[in-house]
Amino acid sequence: MTKIGFVSLGCSKNLVDTEVMLRKLYDRGFELTPDEAEAEILVVNTCGFIESAKRESIETILDLARLKSDGKCKYIIATGCLVERYREEVMNELPEVDALVGVGSIAKIADAAEAVMRGEKYLSFDDKEKSELGGERILTTEEHTAYLKVAEGCDNKCTYCAIPLIRGRLRSRPIEDIVKEACDLEALGVKELNLIAQDTTRYGLDLYGELSLAKLVRAITEATNIPWIRLLYCYPDKITDELIEEFKTNPRLVKYMDIPIQHISDSVLKRMNRHGTSDDIRGAIEKLRREVPGIVLRTTAMVGFPGETDRDFEELCEFVKEIRFEHFGAFTYSPEEGTAAAEFGDTVDEQIKQDRYDILMQTALTVNEEIIDDLVGKTFTVICEGFDTIAEVYHGRTYRDAPDVDGRVYFKSSFPVGVGDFVDVEIHEALDYDLVGQTVKK
Predict the structure, then answer these.
(1) Which of 24, 46, 198, 424 is the most buried (most CB within 10 A)?
(2) Could you give the residue ranges of the DSSP H alpha helices within 28-80?
């Protein structure tokens, strides 16, 4: 039985595609291995969102190619966003790759594997806007948590973003299909469901003619008993009163929202073609904080966008201090081929971009330290994710922390705790982004 290994790069949306491909290969009779050195075929699911992600994808392919001479690897298959976007360049400049599979062809991953085993070069780039959404998968996350992709593609057309070019237009999955998958995940032991899309708040607009995320959350809540439902990638201009009401009335919709704002200066937002103004962003955040006490907000911002002035940047820094996001990330702008912003003038010097990034992240860290210090002495429900045998402590997350991107809670317990168990933990100490505590009995 041929062994296949996988490397999944980029975002959680890409990870879901990887899990679908793993299932396709398993169903075709391939043996899956987590050990790259043991794999005869290696699949790289690439990311192509920004320049650093593209470099990582290429470097990963080249690193794995060395296993063709130093390991058991005979073939490399590349798929994902980088491949979809630069198909000819990847094939011409990376001869180590034996097959290319576009984002619209992931259902054919087993065909690609069989083709390379026959000594054939394989390329498949089916229409991404007609590809199957969803599909059975093999989870690669811990068994208690999973991502559920509710839509594919994006209609926002931000001037800096290549995602619509790579992934196509917004295509929402029917509510009944998503609910069925949620039920299947619950049967596998999932206790935390993270709903994702390029723009989760736009869910249903193409399919039902209206923003339907709140309706979807209610349907999942009614059909399952999954304790935590979490929303990621929510845009501020589409946070409806109905969705806010769902946060207020649904105890299983955790009070956490990921809102990628990108900037707060109106002039920058306009050049980015972001939907909504700075007042709209402020209004959405103020309403969430007012209507949903205790809600935790994560955001990301971009620095160095063409035309960003010192004043624009200072406005962003002041906004971060004022709003006090519980979680914050940033990145520097990189021009992406095929996007409108790549043709803009008024480029920002690379060193200035890096300086602004460093200043902004230090600003956010200072805010975070104040926020996290205030958590000492409080008790939170924590989902346990494992036990560190060296440090002899458990680790897990509160509702305040999404998997993979936010902090952790390290805790001791006077009673045994299993992975996926919910326990109450009193916080005794705050680290940079993490918390330390002790379980308390209810």
Answers:
(1) 46
(2) 51-65, 67-70
CATH fold group of domain 3-130: Rossmann fold (3.40.50)
> What are the backbone angles phi and psi of residue 378, rounded to the nearest 5°?
-95, 160
Q: Which spans in 102-201 are helix H?
A: 109-117, 163-167, 175-187
Residues 77, 102: contact at Cβ < 8 Å?
no
Three-state DSSP class for residue 187 = helix
Give the pLDDT of residue 130. 87
Burial code (b: 16+ CB inside 10 Å, e: under 16) for 411-420 equals bebeeebeeb
Q: Where are the alpha helices (H) located in 233-343, listed in sequence order?
A: 241-249, 266-272, 278-291, 310-323
Q: For the structural domain made of 379-440, what CATH number should be given?
A: 2.40.50.140
**Highest CATH level, class, for 145-369:** alpha beta
Mean predicted lDDT score pLDDT of the chain: 93
Beta strand pairing call for 99-101 and 151-152 = unpaired
In 73-189, the DSSP E strands lie at: 75-80, 99-101, 122-124, 145-149, 151-152, 171-172
Contact 184/220 with Cβ under 8 angstroms? no
Largest CA distance in the chain: 63
In 324-400, alpha helices (H) = 350-373
Q: Where are the domains of the chain?
A: 3-130, 145-369, 379-440
Across 268-273, average pLDDT: 96
Contact 426, 410 (CB under 8 A): no
Give the contacts of 351 (CB within 8 A, at least 6 positions apart): none
- Does the fold of domain 379-440 match that of domain 3-130? no
Count Cβ atoms within 10 A of the Cβ of residue 240 and give its class: 0-12 exposed, 13-18 middle, 19 or more buried: middle
Rounded to 5°, the CA angle 146-148-150 comes to: 170
| Predicted TM-score of the model (pTM) | 0.93
Show the tokens assigned to 205: 């607009």
As a whole number of Å, the CA-based R_g of the chain is 22
Residue 74 predicted with pLDDT over 70: yes
